[in-house]
């Protein structure tokens, strides 16, 4: 989140202890643990569906989700939670993945729904949403970034492992923002269905990208990018 110094009220400085008290309060606000963020793109879905409820996973999409779930389980990590977009294709992907991770709680959120995060630069001819969509979706997706992508809370003692199941546009924007790259370049990244992107956030706020859109665990004939 923010630098520890920004989390303490310097006006409450004790005149007797002075700098010693500030140092003590700073230590209390410093993060101690590392957060591991696994961003999963939903599996292949029915593009012909007119409403969100009709855009369900295809048979191949369900296979992809099984493969992703198996891959995550094989990592042998103690996952803390699965936060997923409330859209149908992300929810269905989550349900399949969660079968491989019994006991991990699931949380649905509208913040991670698909959208147009920011006008891409350079522009593309095949995708031109209405300008108002950038304002509506962009504010929400930026809010998702600020809400979910931050260093560990100072009270967190152990490293955490969290899964976020959402959409390509959301993941690409989050990666650019987390790495302090120009967010307008988000559309230059490409993500397969069911892919795994792994971000690491250290206690000092440094962010590293371990994997981007990994689908090496899927057979070539199961890989799609729709």
UniProtKB/TrEMBL annotation:
Single annotated GO MF: protein serine/threonine phosphatase activity
Keywords noted in UniProt: Hydrolase, Membrane, Mitochondrion, Mitochondrion outer membrane, Necrosis
Positions of transmembrane segments: none
Official protein name in the record: Serine/threonine-protein phosphatase PGAM5, mitochondrial
Family: Belongs to the phosphoglycerate mutase family. BPG-dependent PGAM subfamily.
Keyword field contains Membrane: yes
Coiled coil (UniProt feature): none
Native organism taxonomy: Eukaryota, Metazoa, Chordata, Craniata, Vertebrata
UniProt cross-references to Pfam families, sorted A to Z: His_Phos_1 (PF00300)
Source species, domain of life: Eukaryota
């Amino acid at each position: 989140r923010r630098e520890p110094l920004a989390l303490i009220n310097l006006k409450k400085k004790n005149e007797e202890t002075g700098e010693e008290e500030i140092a003590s309060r700073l230590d209390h606000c410093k993060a101690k643990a590392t957060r591991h963020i696994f961003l999963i793109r939903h599996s292949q879905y029915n593009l012909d569906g007119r409403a969100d409820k009709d855009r369900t996973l295809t048979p191949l999409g369900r296979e992809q989700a099984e493969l992703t779930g198996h891959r995550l389980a094989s990592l042998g990590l103690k996952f803390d939670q699965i936060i997923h977009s409330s859209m149908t294709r992300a929810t269905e992907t989550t349900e399949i993945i969660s079968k491989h991770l019994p006991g991990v709680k699931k949380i649905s959120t509208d913040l991670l729904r698909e959208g147009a995060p920011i006008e891409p630069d350079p522009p593309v001819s095949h995708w031109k949403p209405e300008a108002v969509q950038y304002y509506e979706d962009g504010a929400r997706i930026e809010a998702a970034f600020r809400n979910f992508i931050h260093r560990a809370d100072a009270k967190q003692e152990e490293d955490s492992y969290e899964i976020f199941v959402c959409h390509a546009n959301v993941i690409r924007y989050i990666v650019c923002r987390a790495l302090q790259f120009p967010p307008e370049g988000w559309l230059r990244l490409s993500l397969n269905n069911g892919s795994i992107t792994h971000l690491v956030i250290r206690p000092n706020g440094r962010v590293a990208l371990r994997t981007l859109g990994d689908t090496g665990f899927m057979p070539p004939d199961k890989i799609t990018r729709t």
